[in-house]
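Before the break, one more example. Copy the sequence into your notebook; we will annotate it together after we see the structure.
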Amino acid sequence: MSRRASSAALASGAPVFAALGDETRLRIVAQLCRGGPASIAGLTEESGVTRQAVAKHLHILEDAGLVHATRSGRESSWRLLPGGLADARARLDRISEQWDAALERLRAFVEEDPKA
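Here is what the structure looks like once it is written out:
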């Protein structure tokens, strides 16, 4: 993959990392991971913020492709979309591999015999 394509692929994940960068949203994601689908009321109980705030955070997570709501009458049940987290994990793994390769090149350079 070219450097430009690699940068574009990483940049396309920015909304996911931006969404997960907020402590409240990260707690909501963790809660959905632990307990499965939940209503806004259920998510509000553990969050310490208002229903309106939880709803706003859920919509940001939805825009990032991390959660999805299913309506049943007046109630919405929010669930985690595992693909969004798997994609973020894959991006982090690629970055980790790049760092490992860079550190290995640095190690080889530092250990290189200057007399050779």
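The first strand starts at residue 67 and ends at 72. Residues 99 and 105 are 10 Å apart (CA to CA). Try to locate both features in your own notes.
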